[in-house]
Write a structure and sequence with these properties.
Elements lengths: L1 H13 L4 H8 L1 H5 L7 H11 L6 H13 L3 H13 L6 H12 L6 H11 L1 H6 L5 H15 L6 H10 L3 H30 L11 H10 L1 H15 L5 H19 L5 H34 L2 H12 L3 H18 L2 H18 L4 H15 L7 H10 L3 H7 L1 H16 L2 H10 L1
Helix pairs in contact: 1-2, 2-16, 4-16, 5-15, 5-16, 6-7, 6-13, 7-10, 7-12, 8-10, 8-21, 10-12, 10-21, 10-22, 11-19, 12-20, 12-23, 12-24, 14-15, 16-19, 17-19, 18-19, 18-20, 19-20
Length: 427
C-alpha cells in the first residue's frame, strides 16, 4: 500500500497537479480500498490539523515579516550590511550573505529572501561588481539558506508542529548554526571573488561613525531575533505568543518609529499574509491526511525497520536520510517536504540516537539545499528566473558553495553542540 501511495503521489506531480492536492489524492486508497477507516475520517483530519495552538505561530510570524518589510527596514539593513562587508573582495556578494542573516530575523523564508535580494542586489552585482549572472545567482541563492536557519524560520515552526518538537528550542538551536553558516559562505565568497577579481562595493573602509550610524538606523530590525531569544530564556512567551508580540512590535515600529507604514502598505501586507498563509495551511491540511494514511499503514515503522536492516551505524543512517532529503528537495517545495517527509524520517534518526532538535536544524537546512538543485529546485528557479540565468550555468557557478555546504553539514554532525548549546543553556 505504501508503494501505491508513493506511486500515485509521483504520478500526480508528473501530470502537473498542485502539490497540496497530490498529497490528498494519493491517500485515497487507504480510505477506500483497505476499509480500515471511512473516508469521512480524511475530512476530519483536515480540520483537526488546523486546530493547533502552536500552529498559530505561522500566521503571526508571516504577518510580522510582511509588516517589517513594509516599514522601510530592508534598505536600512542593506546599508548596514554594505558598511559592514561592502569593502571586502566580492563586495555585494558579501553584502547579500550578511543581509540574508539579518533578514532571517524578519522574513523567515529562504525563497522570499532569495527573490528580494535578486531584485535588490543582483543588478548591482552584475553591472558594478563584475559578477557574471550565474555567479550572482549562486551567491544569492546559497545565502538565502541562512534565512531558513535563523529564527523565526517558518520551516522550523512547521517542523516543530508536525513532529511535536519544541519550537522555542528549535529557534534557539538555529542561532549558532546560522551565524556559523554565514561565516563559511562569506569565506567561500571571498575566495571565489579573489579568484575571479570581483570588485568591492566600497572603495575604502567605512568610518566607525558611518558604521555606527547604519547600525543604529537598523537597530529595530536587528533587535527582532534578540527579543525572541530573551523572551524564550526568561519564559515571557511561547513561540505562538512571541509571534503575536512581534506582529504588534512590527506595527509599532512602522507607525511610530520609522513612520513609513501607511494604511495602504498595511492593507498590502495583510493581503500578502493571507495569500502566503492560504498556501501553507492548504499544504498542512492535505499533508495531515496523507500523514495519517501513512501512519495507518505503519509507514514510519516500516521505513525504520528497512533502514536498520541495511545498517545500524548512526552515521550511515544519517547519510541515507540526508540523501533522501536532498533528492526530495529537488522536486518539492520546502514546506511540503517538511510536512510530508520529516514525520517519516525523524523516527529513523531518533532510533539511531540523534537528538530531534539537532536533527531539526539539519533537516530544514538539507531540504532548503535541495531547493538549489536541478531539476525542480524552487529557490534555484526563483533566482534564475529573476536574473535570467540558465540552470546549467547556475549549477557550475554553485560548485564552491556546494562544497562549503558539505563542510557545514559535516561540522554540524560532528559537533552537535553547535545546535544544542543555546537550548541546553537557556531553556
Amino acid at each position: 500500500m505504501l508503494l501505491l501511495i508513493a506511486g500515485l503521489f509521483a504520478f500526480f506531480l508528473m501530470v502537473g497537479m498542485p502539490v497540496a492536492f497530490a498529497l490528498a489524492l494519493a491517500s485515497i486508497p487507504v480510505f477506500v480500498l483497505t476499509g480500515t477507516m471511512p473516508p469521512t475520517v480524511a475530512v476530519q483530519k483536515m480540520v483537526t490539523a488546523t486546530q493547533s495552538f502552536p500552529l498559530l505561530a505561522v500566521p503571526f510570524f508571516i504577518l510580522a515579516g510582511n509588516l517589517m518589510n513594509a516599514t522601510g527596514i530592508t534598505h536600512r539593513l542593506v546599508n548596514f550590511a554594505r558598511n559592514l562587508t561592502g569593502w571586502m573582495a566580492g563586495g555585494l556578494g558579501q553584502v547579500s550573505i550578511v543581509l540574508s542573516m539579518l533578514m532571517g530575523g524578519i522574513s523567515g523564508s529562504a525563497v522570499a529572501d532569495a527573490a528580494m535580494e535578486s531584485r535588490l542586489l543582483g543588478p548591482g552585482m552584475i553591472n558594478q561588481g563584475g559578477y557574471s549572472k550565474a555567479a550572482a545567482a549562486a551567491v544569492i541563492a546559497f545565502g538565502s539558506i541562512i534565512t531558513a536557519t535563523i529564527p523565526p524560520s517558518i520551516g522550523l515552526i512547521l517542523f516543530g508542529f508536525i513532529n511535536e518538537v519544541s519550537i522555542g528550542r528549535l529557534f534557539l538551536a538555529g542561532v549558532i548554526p546560522g551565524i556559523f553558516l554565514t561565516l563559511i559562505l562569506m569565506v567561500t565568497a571571498w575566495l571565489v571573488a579573489k579568484k575571479n577579481d570581483y570588485a568591492p562595493d566600497l572603495k575604502e573602509l567605512p568610518s566607525f561613525r558611518d558604521l555606527l550610524a547604519s547600525f543604529l538606523d537598523s537597530i529595530w530590525a536587528i533587535a527582532f531575533p534578540i527579543i525572541l531569544i530573551v523572551g524564550f530564556r526568561f519564559g515571557f512567551f511561547t513561540a505562538t505568543e512571541a509571534g503575536a508580540f512581534l506582529a504588534f512590535y512590527a506595527l509599532f515600529v512602522g507607525f511610530f518609529i520609522h513612520r513609513e507604514l501607511t494604511l495602504e502598505a498595511l492593507y498590502a501586507a495583510m493581503k500578502e499574509t493571507v495569500s502566503d498563509l492560504g498556501m501553507v495551511m492548504l499544504l498542512i491540511m492535505m499533508a495531515a491526511v496523507l500523514g495519517y494514511a501513512v501512519t495507518i499503514e505503519r509507514g514510519p515503522q516500516q521505513i525504520t525497520e528497512f533502514v536498520t536492516a541495511l545498517t545500524s551505524e548512526p552515521v550511515l543512517v544519517l547519510l541515507l536520510v540526508a540523501l533522501l532529503l536532498v533528492v526530495s528537495g529537488m522536486f518539492l517545495e520546502g514546506a511540503a517536504n517538511i510536512l510530508l517527509i520529516t514525520p517519516i524520517v525523524l523516527p529513523v534518526l531518533v532510533h539511531a540516537g540523534y537528538d530531534p532538535v539537532h536533527m531539526g536544524i539539519l533537516i530544514v537546512t538539507l531540504i532548503n539545499l535541495g531547493g538549489l538543485t536541478p531539476p525542480v529546485g524552487i529557490i534555484m528557479f526563483t533566482v534564475c528566473g529573476i536574473l535570467d540565468v540558465k540552470t546549467g550555468a547556475f549549477a557550475r557557478a554553485s560548485i564552491p558553495y556546494f562544497a562549503a555546504m558539505i563542510v557545514f553539514f559535516v561540522l554540524l554532525v560532528i559537533f552537535p553542540q553547535l545546535s544544542l548549546l543555546l537550548p541546553g543553556r537557556l531553556m
